[in-house]
Amino acid sequence: MKCACGRESVYYQRYANRWLCEDCFKKDVEKRVRKVLGREVIRNNVKIGVGISGGKDSLVMTYILKKFYDSIPNSEIICFFVDEGIKGFRDVAKKYVVEFCKEFDIDLRIISFKEEINYTMDELVEKNYLKHLNIGKPCSFCGVVRRYLLNKYAFLNNCTYLAIGHNLDDFCQTILMNYIEGNVKNIIQFGKDVSSSTNFVKRIKPLKLIPEEEVILYAKLNNLKYQKEPCPYSHLSYRYKIKKIIEMLEEDKPGVRFGILRGYESLLKLIEYREGNLKKCKICGSLCSGELCKVCSWLEILKGL
Ligand code: SF4
Ligand code: ZN
């Protein structure tokens, strides 16, 4: 089939019922990333901290950001890679990240769970320590601590924004997971991406409008090498089940993922966000409802084990 421009197509965009050639496909992806970021983010005098994991999303995101900012004066990109200590997984990802940053001449900082919290993820699972924190699934700990560390280092490095590689599917999963579990506060916080905490770096999610299969194709067409194997703990997560449900819905009704996102964003506009009476965490200074924030209280318990 031919693309509207007359060239041979490489992709059928089911939800839009159109065929795209390589060039138009790449432009379409980049146009949507530009739309999400807007002029407020794509400008000069900006330092973007990027959470890079070695997977397709973060590499595609960094590649596109680099392309955008290369011609913008006084702009900078710095990547943060969190090594949770998951053998056979994150150590492999690290190689892709190191090579990628070297090839594209991007500053890279490596942050390790072992150095930061004294344990690797593997040790916490092997020793069954998560049960002392009342945590059932590894991701519930790992994901929160990862975000905490990314924010910490983006803040320490004076980043204007922290870019997270969530694609459209990730967004839909988070939205549905929180709806189903009734986590109203999380739903709002996730969408607003703000906090009055003085050490919070505003997050941006450039791939918000890009479905997973398009991230994969974009990576392939640009010869980006990334880690394909999933984390050994990921199948234990609730997210994994929701992912499968969304894939089924999309198969049945193309465009459903954009529908979930649109509905959620319309809802967000109607909600006034109030953080309530928050205190400063006595250890790290983040805003929280108790004396310590969630991460610091977990780390305190771990110290006592
Ligand atoms: Fe951590 Fe879960 Fe991601 Fe694995 S899948 S790296 S355990 S958050
Ligand atoms: Zn804290």
TrEMBL record:
<protein>
    <submittedName>
        <fullName>PP-loop domain protein</fullName>
    </submittedName>
</protein>
<feature type="domain" description="tRNA(Ile)-lysidine/2-thiocytidine synthase N-terminal">
    <location>
        <begin position="48"/>
        <end position="230"/>
    </location>
</feature>
<dbReference type="GO" id="GO:0002144">
    <property type="term" value="C:cytosolic tRNA wobble base thiouridylase complex"/>
</dbReference>
<feature type="domain" description="2-thiouridine synthetase TtuA-like N-terminal LIM">
    <location>
        <begin position="4"/>
        <end position="25"/>
    </location>
</feature>
<dbReference type="InterPro" id="IPR000541">
    <property type="entry name" value="Ncs6/Tuc1/Ctu1"/>
</dbReference>
<dbReference type="GO" id="GO:0016740">
    <property type="term" value="F:transferase activity"/>
</dbReference>
<dbReference type="InterPro" id="IPR054306">
    <property type="entry name" value="TtuA-like_LIM_N"/>
</dbReference>
<dbReference type="GO" id="GO:0002143">
    <property type="term" value="P:tRNA wobble position uridine thiolation"/>
</dbReference>
<dbReference type="Pfam" id="PF22082">
    <property type="entry name" value="TtuA_LIM_N"/>
</dbReference>
<dbReference type="InterPro" id="IPR014729">
    <property type="entry name" value="Rossmann-like_a/b/a_fold"/>
</dbReference>
<keyword id="KW-0547">Nucleotide-binding</keyword>
<keyword id="KW-0067">ATP-binding</keyword>
<dbReference type="InterPro" id="IPR011063">
    <property type="entry name" value="TilS/TtcA_N"/>
</dbReference>
<feature type="binding site">
    <location>
        <position position="165"/>
    </location>
    <ligand>
        <name>ATP</name>
    </ligand>
</feature>
<feature type="binding site">
    <location>
        <position position="170"/>
    </location>
    <ligand>
        <name>ATP</name>
    </ligand>
</feature>
<dbReference type="GO" id="GO:0000049">
    <property type="term" value="F:tRNA binding"/>
</dbReference>
<feature type="binding site">
    <location>
        <position position="57"/>
    </location>
    <ligand>
        <name>ATP</name>
    </ligand>
</feature>
<feature type="binding site">
    <location>
        <position position="82"/>
    </location>
    <ligand>
        <name>ATP</name>
    </ligand>
</feature>
<keyword id="KW-0808">Transferase</keyword>
<dbReference type="Pfam" id="PF01171">
    <property type="entry name" value="ATP_bind_3"/>
</dbReference>
<dbReference type="GO" id="GO:0005524">
    <property type="term" value="F:ATP binding"/>
</dbReference>
<dbReference type="InterPro" id="IPR035107">
    <property type="entry name" value="tRNA_thiolation_TtcA_Ctu1"/>
</dbReference>
<feature type="binding site">
    <location>
        <begin position="51"/>
        <end position="53"/>
    </location>
    <ligand>
        <name>ATP</name>
    </ligand>
</feature>
